[in-house]
């Protein structure tokens, strides 16, 4: 099982310190999410400073970029050391259509074709075939030598897809090399819902489960006393926010917390946002979190909890620079 430093926000200025943190704390990978920043820019800085850990996007938005743009950025990040992982996600309709003014529907067929287009482009860069992708959503057939990045000495990057429901897990199994698990989950949900769907997808590409990575992000509450209490309430607010969204209802239903989800959604609809955190009971928080006094203890708990399920672990609210993981 690998442990990754997963940054939800990461300014360009802090990346050198974050690279040093990842190496000194014993992480296997450094991932950057696309929230306020472009993950590829941050990872370019990381890639100039490190060559012995994995680097990846967790995730980059697919539909806001041409497959060619994504393919080029990933290719250059992968070129030096062959350790880049391209994490992609569809996001939700409101962000794609109203924040980025890009096409969203239909998300699953579009994402499947997007992955196929990126892989086809990489094959063209590598000289396996000319660029000639003719899809329902994307057409790519023009690649003059002057703009062709050319081959690299490594196998092409792996692709992970952000997943939540069974259809997305099945899609990841069918077209990708791994899946990112949202922090709002339980181990039982992964065993009962994610794994069977992944198996169905893997059967499409005749791929063994051992060659597919499940990368799990986990909520954590670390420490004792007032610092732990503050962290606990912060995580409670995060849980309340996600649980109030209908998208995550299936996870709550599976864990027996659907009633909490309904109450939270009602409060949000009524504009009573300040009240939602109080609706998350302690036992629900404990079910969705790892609670420990130290980060090394948290790593041990995560390793035991996700044994046989997760291939990579990252913490949603990771240690600050200077705090060792193990």
Protein described:
Residues 11-306 form the Luciferase-like domain. By secondary structure, the chain is α/β, with parallel strands linked by helices. It has one domain (2-220, 290-315): Alpha-Beta Barrel (TIM Barrel), CATH 3.20.20.30. It is 43% helix and 17% strand. The chain contains 12 helices and 12 strands. The strands form 2 sheets. Strands 1-2-3-5-8-9-10-12 form an 8-stranded parallel beta barrel, surrounded by 6 helices. The protein has a two-stranded antiparallel sheet with strand order 6-7. Helix 2 (39-47) links the parallel strand 2 (29-32) and strand 3 (54-57). The longest helix is centred in the middle third of the chain and has 19 residues, at 107-125. The radius of gyration is 20 Å and the shape is globular.
Summarize the structure in short:
The chain has 326 residues and is an alpha/beta fold.
Count of spatially separate domains: 1
Query: What is the CATH topology classification name?
Result: TIM Barrel
Round the mean pLDDT to the nearest integer and report it. Answer: 95
The backbone outline, from C-alpha atoms, is globular
Q: Which structural class do the helices and strands define?
A: alpha/beta
Distance between the termini: 13 Å
> Uncertain regions: pLDDT < 50 for 5+ in a row?
none
Protein name: Probable F420-dependent oxidoreductase, MSMEG_2256 family
InterPro entries: F420-G6PD/mer (IPR050564), Lucif-like_OxRdtase_MSMEG_2256 (IPR019919), Luciferase-like_dom (IPR011251), Luciferase-like_sf (IPR036661)
Pfam families: Bac_luciferase (PF00296)
GO molecular function: oxidoreductase activity, acting on paired donors, with incorporation or reduction of molecular oxygen
